TrEMBL record:
CDD domains: M42_Frv
Residues spanning the signal sequence: none
InterPro entries tied to this protein: Peptidase_M42, Peptidase_M42_aminopept, Peptidase_M42_dom2
Similarity comment: Belongs to the peptidase M42 family.
Pfam families on file: Peptidase_M42
Domain of life: Bacteria
Taxonomic placement: Bacteria, Pseudomonadati, Verrucomicrobiota, Verrucomicrobiia, Verrucomicrobiales
Gene name linked to the record: ysdC_2
GO MF annotation list: aminopeptidase activity
Name this protein carries in UniProt: Aminopeptidase YsdC
Length: 359
């Protein structure tokens, strides 16, 4: 399981897939599941689905997109102005490498830059520069060169560049886009193993689109596959670094899979929460429970879709998400895979019905 996880996480985190341009992650999903017993399909936004089995419809969903940028303008002297797509913190951007995906499918390397601090007045040096003051340097000398030689046009997607790297600390890995390539890896790996081992339901593994810009693809996903239960797989922010009281930590590296009960986007079905925690305990799976006052996931769309879908979020905590270099402990990811599998296998007709029997 570990070797498969590492290989899958490497392929997914190094893929270029910002909101609206999730093609590379979708291709990995299809490649991994096309020979597994079941059917593949897509929706009209680009979300991708694998379905196998019969009975109550249980959805394992990750979102394929990562935060990135798009080309907003090109200056006469060949620098690229850009807009964020998703939630960036400007502190993290200067001097970072990015790739512009041009219309020919070529990735053009560049670096995020600004006016050098040497030429800024003292009052401006200590301020965080707004994205509007930044630009991307690809080494071009004119707008014509950018457009004609580099084939870059307005609107082209831009993604961070960061190699998937194993750290000295055993089990720790550094990469971009663990939010949410851990979720996508889990959806793929869990689906492969669940189908091979058997399950009492219709399993739907999914990759949604455009989560980072408003949980948009999940709306289309809920309408298309009409799940009875939605298990959202995520890479939530860890809170175990300096600045957080240890007594309040709910997302530590090495603490196991995170089970989210609530955030501003969704209140998870209490019966499903209890069910998932019980399954974890019965299977000896390490977990940590979280209640968040900020953030959101695709559960925000799933839980109010159709007539209401019982939803829960399982996560692999990651330090420094929404930056070029996030960190996970592989143990937490493997516990998320184990819990995803165990929950799906336990969701038979009786268990699913009990989640919404109110009369």
């Amino acid at each position: 399981m570990k070797d498969k996880a590492v290989s899958l996480l490497k392929d997914l985190t190094e893929a270029h897939s910002v909101p609206g341009y999730e093609d590379e992650v979708r291709a990995i999903f299809v490649n991994e599941l096309e020979d597994v017993r079941g059917e593949l399909s897509t929706d009209k936004m680009g979300g991708v689905y694998f379905e196998s089995g019969s009975g109550p419809r249980v959805l394992l969903a990750g979102h394929m997109d990562e935060i990135g940028f798009r080309v907003q303008n090109i200056t006469p002297d060949g620098f690229i102005k850009f807009v964020p797509v998703g939630g960036w913190w400007s502190h993290t951007l200067l001097s970072q490498r990015v790739e512009v995906l041009n219309r020919d499918g070529e990735k053009i390397l560049g670096v995020i830059s600004s006016k050098p601090p040497h030429f800024l007045p003292e009052s401006e040096r200590t301020k965080v520069l707004d994205v509007s003051a930044l630009f991307i340097d690809i080494g071009a000398e004119s707008r014509a060169e950018v457009e004609d030689d580099f084939k870059i046009k307005l609107g082209d997607p831009i993604a961070p560049v960061s190699e998937f790297t194993e750290m000295k600390k055993h089990g720790h890995y550094l990469a971009k886009a663990f939010d949410n390539r851990v979720g996508m890896a889990c959806a793929i790996q869990a689906a492969q193993e669940i189908v091979a081992e058997g399950h009492p339901n219709t399993l739907i593994a999914a990759g949604t689109v455009q989560e980072e810009v408003g949980l948009r693809g999940a709306k289309a996903a809920a309408h298309k596959v009409k799940p009875d239960v939605a298990i959202v797989l995520e890479g939530p922010p860890a809170d175990d670094t300096p600045g957080f009281p240890k007594s309040e930590c709910q997302g530590s590296l090495g603490g196991g899979v995170q089970i989210r009960l609530q955030d501003p986007s969704a209140i998870m079905n209490p019966r499903l929460v209890d069910f998932v925690c019980k399954v974890a305990e019965e299977n000896g799976i390490q977990y940590q429970v979280t209640v968040r006052s900020s953030g959101g996931t695709d559960a925000g769309s799933f839980n109010i879709a159709n007539e209401g879908i019982p939803s829960i979020v399982l996560g692999t905590p990651a330090r420094y998400i929404h930056s070029h270099n996030a960190m996970i402990n592989l143990h937490d990811y493997l516990e998320m895979v184990k819990l995803s599998k165990a929950v799906v296998k336990a969701l038979d007709e009786k268990a699913v019905s009990a989640l919404t029997e109110y009369l």
